[in-house]
Design goal:
The chain is of the alpha/beta class and 112 residues long. The chain contains two helices and eight strands.
Length: 112
């Protein structure tokens, strides 16, 4: 499945935009965060919400994604999320991160 645009509710959109911009994602004039061919849109909410979403990356590229992520994200807060997790039953590898408000993002790469 490919998702063109994902909308999440967030109690601190400004912090989220700053966090994603700092970590290399482009934010357009409408506030959409571009992740490859998909967009992440954040809408303001009074209460904090927590989500888990996945970003597909090219097959067998998880080691390169890990190197990029560890270079980009140098704060101790993110250190536990630098580990690659192998999912043999799905023939996939994943790497997790937390954003500014605690959402869990996942990079997932299928194996050839």
């Amino acid at each position: 499945m490919h998702i063109d645009e994902l909308t999440l509710y967030c109690h601190d959109v400004a912090s989220q935009h700053a966090w994603y911009a700092t970590h290399g994602w482009h934010i357009d004039a409408t506030g959409a965060i571009h992740m490859g061919t998909s967009r992440l849109r954040l809408l303001t909410a009074a209460h904090p919400y927590r989500y888990h979403y996945a970003i597909a990356v090219p097959a067998n590229s998880i080691a390169a994604v890990q190197r990029w992520w560890l270079r980009t994200c140098q704060t101790p807060h993110h250190a536990p999320y630098g580990t690659i997790h192998a999912f043999d039953e799905w023939q996939a590898d994943a790497l997790y991160f937390r954003d500014a408000v605690g959402n869990i993002g996942e990079f997932i790469a299928q194996r050839d």
